[in-house]
Amino acid sequence: MYWKKCPASTFIRRRRRSISSSTRASAWSWWDHVRPASKDPIVGVTEAFLADPNPKRINLGVGAYRDDEGKPVVLQCVRDAEAKIAGSEFLESISAAISSKLVEESLKLVYGKDSNVITDGRFAGIQALSGTGACRLFAEFQKRFYPESQIYLPDPTWSNHHNIWRDAHVPRRTFRYYNPSTKGLNFAALMDDVKNAPDSSFFLLHPCAHNPTGVDPTKEQWREISHQFKVKNHFPFFDMAYQGFASGDFDIDAKAIRIFLEDGHLIGCAQSFAKNMGLYGHRVGCLSVLCSDHKQAVGVKSQLQQIARAMYGSPPVHGLLLVSTILSDSDIKSLWLREMKAMANRIKSNRSALRDSLENLGSPLNWEHITNQVGMFCFSGLTPDQVNQLARKFHIYMTQDGRISMAGVTSGNVSYLANAINQVTNYSQENLNLCNTSF
Ligand SMILES: Cc1ncc(COP(=O)(O)O)c(C=O)c1O
């Protein structure tokens, strides 16, 4: 690191020398020590896909919804909300009333529309810059009020969780989550890690449609996790980026959080409307913290507002108006719930279609996990070598960990995809057999 090798005094001396020995101020270069940051794995996949001119190319990297032609979708509920807010005076910052409406309606999605915790004044909630911004705000808040704390993240998790807590200077630990041999949950290991973490630790949990594995605990397992959190006094922070995508039903997808609520936990929750409203570009989300009483909630909210103010001022208004209109107009909201169900159903049928196609091709491998896993992603079990072969030979792109974004599968490409997966896995299987028989 340049800064480490070059203490500030040397740096300033060199700079003075450089400026005085040069007639041109521009001779001093401020940014020589800045090296390119490592590429985000998902951005890299999209770039490779876009650079490939082959008409058969498939992008299975992006975690956003696509229609059966592989195109981004603008939901009808969003178009209706656009029409309703057309002409709104949203050039000035938004009134506190509209912002609180968004928070209140977001909380109803998570805790249930009739939940009395929403009206009893114990929530500190603010609008956030989508799910990423909500997580980052919480990470900053955690650092400010528990400076010695760390965060436990599932292994694996959305890669940006690591970046977010790293940049907030909160040390990261992981807890075991996924079992590659069953392609399901490693529940015993998860519980061990929860038990063995120091008392009163912060844990990040995906309440539904876990990214990248598509593996969620069952209701019973959530009950046990919640119980153990109580015993250890851990703090649950839920990152809810895909509500609706696991089951097609918002209440079912919120079951984990509601179990924790019933058990009397205080809860943090990040919500995103990027995927379930298809509003990726608008960056609308919500961060909420359930507190012990109203006084605490007032303190927490004011601190969250202060952190946000120093980071980005206030969030954009247009997306806020769209989301609060969808959530508070009963006709538009029921349209949204129907459209959400249709998106979830299309993904489910893609799972069945991919699994059926692989089985019909006579693949000797077990593909049950494709339909057992839920939500946007399938953690296929493909190795990095097989992923590379898919890109090189078949123009099919996904992240190196073998994560398939199921929304990228269409009725037009599923046979081609299954055939390609069958070929790269059979080839690896044959190689394995050859290796085994040569002994
Ligand atoms: C688990 C998880 N959390 C949060 C996010 C952030 O979503 P956004 O900031 O786009 O709302 C994502 C996006 O991929 C995610 O997968």
Automatic annotation (TrEMBL):
<comment type="function">
    <text>Important for the metabolism of amino acids and Krebs-cycle related organic acids. In plants, it is involved in nitrogen metabolism and in aspects of carbon and energy metabolism.</text>
</comment>
<keyword id="KW-0808">Transferase</keyword>
<dbReference type="GO" id="GO:0030170">
    <property type="term" value="F:pyridoxal phosphate binding"/>
</dbReference>
<dbReference type="InterPro" id="IPR015421">
    <property type="entry name" value="PyrdxlP-dep_Trfase_major"/>
</dbReference>
<comment type="similarity">
    <text>Belongs to the class-I pyridoxal-phosphate-dependent aminotransferase family.</text>
</comment>
<feature type="domain" description="Aminotransferase class I/classII large">
    <location>
        <begin position="57"/>
        <end position="421"/>
    </location>
</feature>
<keyword id="KW-0032">Aminotransferase</keyword>
<dbReference type="InterPro" id="IPR004838">
    <property type="entry name" value="NHTrfase_class1_PyrdxlP-BS"/>
</dbReference>
<dbReference type="GO" id="GO:0006520">
    <property type="term" value="P:amino acid metabolic process"/>
</dbReference>
<dbReference type="Pfam" id="PF00155">
    <property type="entry name" value="Aminotran_1_2"/>
</dbReference>
<dbReference type="GO" id="GO:0005739">
    <property type="term" value="C:mitochondrion"/>
</dbReference>
<comment type="subunit">
    <text>Homodimer.</text>
</comment>
<keyword id="KW-0663">Pyridoxal phosphate</keyword>
<dbReference type="InterPro" id="IPR015424">
    <property type="entry name" value="PyrdxlP-dep_Trfase"/>
</dbReference>
<dbReference type="InterPro" id="IPR000796">
    <property type="entry name" value="Asp_trans"/>
</dbReference>
<protein>
    <recommendedName>
        <fullName>Aspartate aminotransferase</fullName>
        <ecNumber>2.6.1.1</ecNumber>
    </recommendedName>
</protein>
<dbReference type="InterPro" id="IPR015422">
    <property type="entry name" value="PyrdxlP-dep_Trfase_small"/>
</dbReference>
<dbReference type="GO" id="GO:0004069">
    <property type="term" value="F:L-aspartate:2-oxoglutarate aminotransferase activity"/>
</dbReference>
<dbReference type="InterPro" id="IPR004839">
    <property type="entry name" value="Aminotransferase_I/II_large"/>
</dbReference>
